[in-house]
Amino acid sequence: MKIAQVAFGLASVFAATFALAQGAADKRRSGYQDMGEALQKMQDDDTANPGMLFVQLGEQLWSKPAGAANKACADCHASGSMKSVAARYPAIPKDADKPVDLEGRINLCRTANQRAEPLAPESRELLSLEAYVAFQSRGQPIAPPSDPRLGSFREQGGEIYRRRQGQLNLSCAICHDDNAGKKLAGVTIPEAHPTGYPIYRLEWQALGSLRRRLRNCLVGIRAEAYAYDAPEYVALEIYLMDRAKGMPLDAPGVRP
Amino acid sequence: MTNVLINAPKTAKPGEIVEIKALILHPMETGFRPGTNGKIIPRNIIEHFVATWNGAEIFRMEMSPAIAANPFVSFFAVATESGTIGLRWTGDEGFLVEEQVAIAVG
Amino acid sequence: MKIVIPSEARDLYWSLKGPSACGLRVTTMPVTTRRAFLAGATIVCVLPFASAHATPEAMAAAIKEVVGTGTIREGKVKLDLPPLVENGNTVPLTVSVESPMTPADHVKAIHVFNEKNPQPHVFSARLGPQNGKAVIATRIKLADSQKIIAIAETSTGQFFSASADVIVTLAACIEDVT
Q: CATH code at C141?
């Protein structure tokens, strides 16, 4: 009896420390953790987070009928049904062979189901809808789909991530893998996990997508930014989301 | 489409000091930034923010180009009577937004 | 545009050096006699070509406009700003003033100034006993590392102030649109 109790006690201690080790082993830091306290507070307060203005707008647009089909998003997607959607994108839609990010998916719905014009990239409407959908996944761990067809796109993204580019001949990996945590122009270099998108970036004084942020990075290393509809962005996002697998989403994020 | 986020309590006890927070979408273009063509982008800011409680002014703020885009303001007010808290923003280019929230005091 | 300034302001502008406030280039006419100088130093303004920063003197002048000949006391005002700011475009700021906020004794205005943005004002707010608490929070733009000053004006005609130094690692206002 006593031995069984001790064994049970030992087993539960082992399980507890193992669980702790699991949590403690994730040393990845999100952009939120690298920000100053004042900005973290700004993000946490839903009544003061500027990204919430766009979530509110997205919520309004969600119930607005659009297109020749005169359908609103809400007509097909019940409230609460968008939970964890943002955590599983980019993905390859049914009957398609190329992956789309969340914006691409929203526009697919617009053209195919609502029979409306696609929304322009970085337009307020598209960003607001994206913000509203991403907000539904707040707190959800990033969970890329297990579709084997994503493999080649993920590899392509990884190749871009490690490729030296631009006049400064830097790759994403040089800053965000090798030098993350160190300072660049007084600011901590983040690990570049896309946990907060779409983000309210103080630099933009507006909400923007991961695509816009990647373009900023490319300009930052003095490389020519790919065209807005280039597949490179989706490939990079697939790689980055896989790299950030398991980290919780915190959209809409506030970032410097 | 103007977008406003107001946060005020829906109920309060008489004499209770309540916090009122307001966030509004606006570029607050300072008038000091050069655009990509080298020309200064013209100023476009919110100049006045006024709050009323059942029509009586309770708070007024004059903003300058130094207020950040999508201006956020938080201030306090003593809950006197049930009614409407009115918020009004005015500024350049004929900008005018008025919003109201109801509050029950008792 | 020419501005003639009274003689007491002469010393203020005499000390201005380096890049001037956006839109205001200050020169003094070469004068040899004190009398001629007292007759009126002139300032020549040119159109804003490149945005540079204002100066502590411009802030002092803006403060003087509000306070006039009153004395500014330290105390009662608390100015909360992060000491290090990652981006000057949106800096959270809270001003709180100790006051009973009664009809007889309350804060009637709070003014905030800066010393290095293109212009010295940040905001002015009117308050009264109906506010219960003289606490205002907002978000401001800072073009450079600088000092921010908050001045509270009470119903009894007194002025109290507090200041904060902020380091800005990325400027607002003078960035190009990308």
A: 2.60.40.2470
